[in-house]
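Input for the complex:
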Amino acid sequence: MFKFILKRLLLMIPVIIGISFVIFAIVSLTPGDPAQLILGADADPVLLQAKREEFGLNDNFFMRYIKYITGVFRGDFGKSYRTGLPVLGELLLRLPHTTIIALGGIGLSVVVGVPLGMISAIKQYSFIDYFARTLALLLTAIPVFWLGLLMLLFFVLKLRWFPATGTGSWRNYVLPVVALAASATATQTRTTRSAMLEAIRQDYVRTARAKGISEPKIMFKHVLKNSILPVITIAGMNVGVQMGGTVVIENVFNIPGMGNMLINSVRVKDIPMIVSTIIMVAFFIGVMNLIVDIIYTFVDPRLKTQYVTVKKKKDQPLIPAQEKI
Amino acid sequence: MSNVKRRSQFSSVLHRFAKNKLAVVGVIIFFVMAFGALTADIFFDYKLQALDQNAKDKFLPPSREHIFGTDHYGRDLFVRIVYGGRISLIVGFFTAGFGLIFGTIIGASAGYFGGKVDNILMRIMDIFLAIPAMLLAICIVAALGGGLFNLLLANGIANVPRYSRIVRGHVMGLKNSEFIEAARASGANDKRIIFKHIIPNALGQLIVQATLTMAMAILSVASLSFVGLGINPPTPEWGSMLSTGKEFMRTHPNQIVIPGLAIMMAVLSFNLIGDGLRDALDPRLKN
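Predicted:
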């Protein structure tokens, strides 16, 4: 298992190099001079030249990229063009806000979506099933930022239940997390429902019923356990969507997270900041996917065979298929 | 002779689609939006009603003259919503089209030629897939600047990998099958085999994906415009209308409720159509 985790972490390196190269190229090779954008349209040409020299913009593109990426692997993400401060410090300052919102959103979507999908499947065609399906349909279509605005209007400005801005207490994170969780909850509910419905129709469920096992026990021990894989997969896939959603949600609720910083950096083409933010997000998603893969092995013993090291497999070459049964 | 009415593949799919009530609702919403977008110029004057400021009419409540009321510059919200729908539809169709065309070309070449070509193309696609679509779009907008055309391009590029994966999967699955061999034996070249024999098999899944892409693209452009990286005022775009409307939402909630509802209806309609098509095209659900 340890070897597997290490291997996956090492495999992340080429992905991060690839991602950073693509983003670096997209932002650097297009028209628009960061020095000009920061100093303004009618800046002194001498100052402009000095600024370009400072940012290293006069160098060849590949040289700049290699300088940047070797720095990244040494823990130096460069200096922000906009603020002149080291990028890493700024990122680490903002990372917690984004992490709370994104993980909170995923957590909430699982906590609400999975039970809702389960009930919906167990009581198919009941009132609660129709309710859950309609809710899921509406939640996938609602724009995150609009939901955020409506909640801001209702819970903050009208009812005054939550503070409007700031990040001091947990109360500041409630509305962003709920708003962000909405669409993820919808996909979670739908996936759980359809996976459960498929499992309920299996022969082993009928056998379990025939043996006289109680209905709740059948649902949790037989049905849920067999339909949990797609549910976990969707939760993992939602991570990426959530990271995109935090950008707008942070904007609505004025939270100084990575998304807000990305938007500010984009306006002045702050290349080290933009590329580093994307690297950070990609790394975060990579780690989350790894965690999802590890969870897989706990819920599905069949998948554990993947992580058995080659040496062990060689010990029993005659009956490889039996491991899967 | 059997009396069973025979249907062509297409009409049986259509028949199954029409039986799905939700999907039909989606189609109706889509037609209303498309009708508005196509005929807006006949009923309204774009410059006069959607752009020109008219301070004395600001924040009028909904009335017969202004169905949704007016905004902070006294412009009719209904007219702006209709014109905003035009932008959303353009964005949706263009993004889906861009993804379809380039995704098909990339996916088909990767799957058909295999080996090195496949490896290089798909690794590039993997890199694009590893970046959340929204963040990739933000970066492309950062590089190119805002505006409708760049937004279209950003969303289009962000969606190419999904299509290339679908097409590649179908090509890989079919390229060794017997009917392809037969086609090759009768002298068909690579291009003909890919476009005449393989792509039609992937078409169903591609159409479903295209519908869902339209929904995502509409959401994405609205989000980008909302945070100020997309289409800027005074152009009537739903996301940027929400962004200006939020300044006044406390006193005039209709400024945010209406554009938001418009986005939601548009997204809902494409989602419903997509779901309906998926079910209609699924041979397992035939009855």
